[in-house]
Amino acid sequence: MRNPEHAIHAMFTQRWSPRSMLAEPMPAETLLSILEAARWAPSAYNAQPWRFVYAHRDTPEWAPLFNALNPMNQSWARHASALVAIASDEAMVLPGKTERTPNRWHSFDAGAAWAHMALQALHSGYVCHAMAGFDPDKLRQAIGAPAEFALECVVAIGKQGPKEALPAELQAREAPNGRHPLSQISYQGRWHT
Q1: Among 58, 103, 78, which residue's Cα sits nearest to residue 154?
Q2: Helices 28-39, 106-123: inter-axial angle, 10-degree rounding
């Protein structure tokens, strides 16, 4: 059981990143709803640097995205209902300007979009697992991302399955994990250890 130290909405402790999924199709409208929630994430200067490239299982778009994953992630993500690659634009046009300038916050903002996505998926009865284990060259080619976009992650989305369906080496890891104590990660006024 995940127990917060302070009162928060239950969705924050209910959300975790299972790997076991049921290999069933997801309605297109459900996936679009999850992406819609991500679209409403906050971003620096409202630049909205995130881009999502998705594929439903059993469609022609699935294989290129799936093949970009490393073998360990392929071993379980093959049961996902959808895969979503998240990329972010490394530059933006500041308000009142016409030239593109580096966006130091592109990854931070894409992370906010991912969090919105994960929480909407939970609300919709699905689970998400974001993966950093992919071949960047294969993924960039698979999704056609321009060079100025950073490849952030690939997200597997599906209905949660039993942990016994996972490869043996992943079954022990298939449980919600804890968090560092709040006192270890937050400081009033000044950083200290």
Answers
A1: 78
A2: 140
Residue in 65, 60, 63 with CA at minimum distance from that of residue 84: 65
pLDDT in tens, 95-106: 999 999 999 999
Contact (Cβ atoms closer than 8 angstroms) between residue 83 and residue 148: no
Beta bridge partners of 55: 83
For tokens 């990329």, what's the residue?
Answer: 87
Topology at the third CATH level for domain 18-164: NADH Oxidase (3.40.109)
pTM for the whole thing?
Answer: 0.95
* 22-41 pLDDT per residue, tens: 999 999 999 999 999 999 99
Domain definitions of the chain by residue range: 18-164
Per-residue tokens: 103: 């966006």
